[in-house]
Amino acid sequence: MDVFEARIQEAMKSTNNIKEMILFTKVSIMLRDINSMKYDENIKSDLYQFLTIFS
Prior knowledge:
There is one protein chain. By secondary structure, the chain is mainly α. The protein is about 80% helix and about 0% strand. The chain has helices at about 5-15, 20-35, 40-50.
């Protein structure tokens, strides 16, 4: 499992806020879609670097 996916799953388990759960679910779906599209590694690393701001 991807590191980001693991962090998202952990955060979802620890939150009681429905808005946060929805946000985590949407981000998780976006990451799965991005991984399935086979983007260029440079683009992926830029995106992951951007997403680390939120973790």
